[in-house]
Amino acid sequence: KVTIAQVGEIVPLGELDPEVIVTPGIFVQRVVKEAA
């Protein structure tokens, strides 16, 4: 199984509020940034 996270922006570690994270990073194998 592979989990892919589609994101609008990639930010530095620690920038996001942990309360808004839905899927923990340990379960995500790929990150795809949306086209501008």
Please describe the structure with a list of short key phrases separated by commas or semicolons.
single chain; 36 residues; mainly beta; two-stranded parallel ribbon; 2 strands; 0% helix; 22% strand
Instruction: Give the helix tally.
Output: 0
What is the arithmetic mean of pLDDT?
93
Q: Output the structural class.
A: mainly beta
Could you describe the largest sheet, including whether it forms a barrel?
Answer: 2 strands, parallel
Q: What's the end-to-end separation, in Å? A: 28 Å
Helix content: under 10%
| H/E topology pattern | EE
- Give the strand order of the largest sheet, numbering strands 1, 2, ... along the chain: 1-2
Taken from the alpha-carbon principal axes, the silhouette is globular
State Rg. 10 Å
Indicate the low-confidence ranges by residue numbers: none
The tally of strands reads 2
Task: Report the sheet-strand fraction.
Answer: 15-25%
Count of distinct structural domains:
1
Question: Overview of this structure, please?
Answer:
It is a single chain. The chain is mainly β and 36 residues long. The chain has one domain (4-33). It contains no helices and 2 strands. It has a two-stranded parallel sheet with strand order 1-2.
Task: Provide the fold topology.
Blueprint: E1 4-7, E2 30-33
Parallel strand pairs: 1-2
Question: What's the short version?
Answer:
This protein is mainly β and 36 residues long. The protein is built from no helices and two strands. The protein has one domain (4-33).
